[in-house]
Amino acid sequence: MKVPLSLLTIVTEGLLKEPMIELLRRHGATGHTITRADGEGSRGVRAKDWEGPNLRFECILSPEAADAALDEVSERYFENYSVIAWVTEVKVVRSTKFSSKDSAES
Amino acid sequence: MKVPLSLLTIVTEGLLKEPMIELLRRHGATGHTITRADGEGSRGVRAKDWEGPNLRFECILSPEAADAALDEVSERYFENYSVIAWVTEVKVVRSTKFSSKDSAES
Amino acid sequence: MKVPLSLLTIVTEGLLKEPMIELLRRHGATGHTITRADGEGSRGVRAKDWEGPNLRFECILSPEAADAALDEVSERYFENYSVIAWVTEVKVVRSTKFSSKDSAES
Amino acid sequence: MDLLTQNLISPVVLAFVLGMIARWIRSDLEIPSAIYQGMSIYLLFAIGLKGGVALSETPASELVLPLGLTLALGCLTPLSAFFFMRWFGKLGKVDAAATAAHYGSVSAVTFIAAIEAVKLSGIPSNGYLPALLAVLEVPGIIIGLLLAQKSQAGGMKHALREVVTGKSIFLMVGGLAIGAACGQAKVDSVAPFFIAPFKGVLCLFLLELGMVAASRVRDLRSTGLRLVILGCFLPAFHGAIATACGVWIGMAPGGAAIFGAMVGSASYIAAPAAVRIALPEASPGIYLTLSLGVTFPFNLSVGIPIFIKLAETLSHAPTP
Amino acid sequence: MDLLTQNLISPVVLAFVLGMIARWIRSDLEIPSAIYQGMSIYLLFAIGLKGGVALSETPASELVLPLGLTLALGCLTPLSAFFFMRWFGKLGKVDAAATAAHYGSVSAVTFIAAIEAVKLSGIPSNGYLPALLAVLEVPGIIIGLLLAQKSQAGGMKHALREVVTGKSIFLMVGGLAIGAACGQAKVDSVAPFFIAPFKGVLCLFLLELGMVAASRVRDLRSTGLRLVILGCFLPAFHGAIATACGVWIGMAPGGAAIFGAMVGSASYIAAPAAVRIALPEASPGIYLTLSLGVTFPFNLSVGIPIFIKLAETLSHAPTP
Amino acid sequence: MDLLTQNLISPVVLAFVLGMIARWIRSDLEIPSAIYQGMSIYLLFAIGLKGGVALSETPASELVLPLGLTLALGCLTPLSAFFFMRWFGKLGKVDAAATAAHYGSVSAVTFIAAIEAVKLSGIPSNGYLPALLAVLEVPGIIIGLLLAQKSQAGGMKHALREVVTGKSIFLMVGGLAIGAACGQAKVDSVAPFFIAPFKGVLCLFLLELGMVAASRVRDLRSTGLRLVILGCFLPAFHGAIATACGVWIGMAPGGAAIFGAMVGSASYIAAPAAVRIALPEASPGIYLTLSLGVTFPFNLSVGIPIFIKLAETLSHAPTP
Ligand SMILES: Nc1ncnc2c1ncn2[C@@H]1O[C@H](COP(=O)(O)O)[C@@H](O)[C@H]1O
Ligand SMILES: Nc1ncnc2c1ncn2[C@@H]1O[C@H](COP(=O)(O)O)[C@@H](O)[C@H]1O
Ligand SMILES: Nc1ncnc2c1ncn2[C@@H]1O[C@H](COP(=O)(O)O)[C@@H](O)[C@H]1O
Ligand code: NA
Ligand code: NA
Ligand code: NA
User: Which domain of life is it from (chains A, B, C) (predicted)?
Assistant: First the structure.
């Protein structure tokens, strides 16, 4: 009953909250989880200074959707914003919970 | 010296804090890590509205224990509560730290 | 364009914040993400009691660097401090973002 | 009605409205949840403290009647709510019982808002009301859960534990005890923190509550008109009865009005937590939307002034 | 200058310095971000509330001139800043425009600090200033973004939404409205929370701001001397002009000084958020470092006393 | 003893008890850690501020004796604690040294509680005590670490940095400096925030501390009776000596009692952090349980009234 899916994790400035949620939805996400995070990266600016902490999105998606979303995040935001993202393979049960349009493999 | 174990991640309403900790213990967890998270999912109710944010449990377990715990979470809570859970394969060192009864493979 | 890298996750008492950041830097980390976490483990002391919550570090590294960092964390801190750490395999795009000295595989 | 405008144009009510507007225009305003929790701890403890001092100055004999009335109404209102929810609201048994538990219990913030409104209108009140608040919180929830006939030992017990050790009752009862033990003189030493800024904190708290309520209001469409009507009728109905009874057993007019607001209010902190544990299959989309999205704003804007007016009228009626 | 020391040796300014020291000696002092956000909500709402009460007591006719002047200066200062940033600061168009948006907008904390300094120096002020603050916040940002000629429908619109529904303007305008609607008597009921402790909260807030500014100051080396000079010159220049105009249109001396501090200040909350969305390629290392690391401390320590002195001199000049 | 009950029945002490009860009945009450940290920042800064004002009004000559005494006791108490922990407590060298560092240092909350108790009892005190608190915090920790003979350059230096730049000392010394620089008149402007609500905030803070202490008390079983006895004996012993010395060098009776509570107290914020870094192999289950689970409640309930009584007796003894 275990189904392999992908977990997309995105860490980004608080500013991009709405755009990120929208992006995830567009790629078929049925939900997401957000935690507040601090961080340092390659850019000098620590987001925390002026707009609260970074946001850390987690979203379970079908592997294809996760890849596509990761690509879009990278293309649209990597250059000008403080963003980092990665994909992990995970197993879930009852994957129906995650299929809005793409993951009917349960 | 690296030992493969499983990381079980559970995101759930704050309400289920005690039951979840107990469930993890029953499956042999020697510890767990909790972060506060916001989130949206398939259910209309955002937990945050009335009882504080979601809780995100992480627990390192033996692969069998993680699978069993995941099954139990799914069976007992998926229907009526806001819960989501997944399992990831991870590597640790000195897995003795995680073996209460099941993972003696270090 | 997807490149496999490693995600090192460390959960530790707040006290070790600076040493951990330094350790990660020494192993070539270009950044890290910190979330506040509560937790219980094998030691009686819950860090939260007297010095704020645990810190949960996430750091994307080359697989070798992640292994080496994990080893060092285990050797230096496992005995006397509340620390736990694990490594997960992840995929990223544009891995140049993570290469200070070690991961030129993009 | 002048009293109505008087009540509506106050920092506390307007802050609630401001919170709703924040959500409607999709402002990024957000009260950090630690601040929100800090404020609720402050408010509950402070209300207990104030009540405890008043209690320490009230002779026990004076408390017997109000306590009895509170218990009686705490048992009757969930039954009445259950009946209306099934009959007029067309809800299934579990959902009706869950909602009944909410209307049987009490909203501390409505209570506080009523206290402030009464203070503003200048009519006399009673000091022992916070003690009644603590008493009123529990029976409604028990009866609501029993109505669902789901009293499997485990769930029910767990749910009751949750209510009794839950932080809202714990803080209020703890504050009551400390206030009663210390008395006025010693509580005065913490008054600049717990008493004077109280209403200002309430103001910020309602800003947050307005935001939460606004997202509930969005769910009204799916809730259905019949339930919305009940969400306005029940508080008015229960509250008017309670106000009348309060006057009848000799409460001061202000006290009776506050008592009406208490009995009329629907819980949205203690009850949801208990119901979620004991009746997880009941739909929060119904009980939360009604209590927080309909009944709370109704009481805040319309209910409280009505109960004040009613209490004043009834109190003066027999005098001449 | 006595006024300068008088201004510098105050709990509020010293708390800012203490925050900077905390960073320099690498203390582990940290204000939790929930507390910091809670304080900014409190400060903005309180300043609005106070202003709203004052507004409710000011005849509309008295507001026409100040409002017109505010709008005019709100349009001129970003142009002036843009010019200096390109010519003397040698910045590229996008970075100059981004910085201009910051100098065109306004820093609420500078405004508050100016109010406190004026109160301390005992000269008369005007109650309607918070309304001007809200008005001044927006045009500078719009013009700054237009200067970058990057007004692609999407980015610009999104950025404007961000500013107008952003929590800082929303809370201040909301507070203004509530204060104006309720009037003095009703706001008095929340005064022990919103008015009396205000300056103390400001003190803790500046402790945090000092820490943030200190980490900005570290970036000064890479910013370059020319920009640092501008970061001191622009507030003095804009502020002096605004103070003079304020006296000229009849503001009280204290009011004119505060007005000068407002116009001279550079935004570091509303503007960065808007610029980050509309001009993501502009470098925060420039605009944030200038506004928070140079201009804010400059105004806090040197600018405000200068504007007060200037306003007093100009006000007294024509009298004899 | 009347003074004892008088001290125990106060909002501050009862809030501590309420916190312990919350843990015992397993209530879900939780003070968000941001709020807890915010409160400790507030309390430490406020105590410094108040002390700074007092300091600015104390002639330096008056400080020499108290400072000397503080340093002397700050060096003797860790030695005494180490001796008792090894001899009677049967601890190993490292654990005994770690515990000695805690008893050599000082608990700011005990100090604050003593101040409030003295204020309540109406006997005169001294304003310079917060300065002594800052002085007392450091030497005990150094000597404790030296006793472990683990003074490898690195660990010791790191631990000292931690103590001196640690937020508790930093905020208190910062507050002291600001208070001394500004003087009474200017600090008055922030008094409605830092002075008036102080005791109320302390009350909430102790609610949290009670919860933390309760979870420590659970560990008492594994700690052993001998250590629990020392956890009561040491504060009484050190505190009585310090009170007597205080009276002897001419402190006001209230000041001597507070000084006794300070010297008798065991640190549970600065010392644990330093010890954890320099002596990671020492067991927090011992030193934290003793300082927070035994000595703090002991001082709060029994110690402080004893020191007050003692100071009064000794002060009056030579008079007739
Ligand atoms: N190598 C990394 N591992 C984990 N998180 C990172 C890493 N690099 C950057 N981050 C996170 O991503 C955010 C933005 O990074 P950057 O765009 O490089 O400034 C930072 O604030 C960190 O929270
Ligand atoms: N696809 C998803 N990816 C990550 N987190 C999710 C996802 N769906 C739901 N969640 C989280 O799980 C919680 C409960 O989800 P649900 O039961 O679907 O309402 C939400 O509040 C989210 O925090
Ligand atoms: N099995 C586990 N899974 C996840 N997190 C753990 C586990 N064990 C310990 N932790 C975390 O690591 C911290 C330190 O653990 P310990 O050193 O065992 O006390 C705890 O506070 C938890 O946050
Ligand atoms: Na009710
Ligand atoms: Na400006
Ligand atoms: Na001591």
Answer: Bacteria
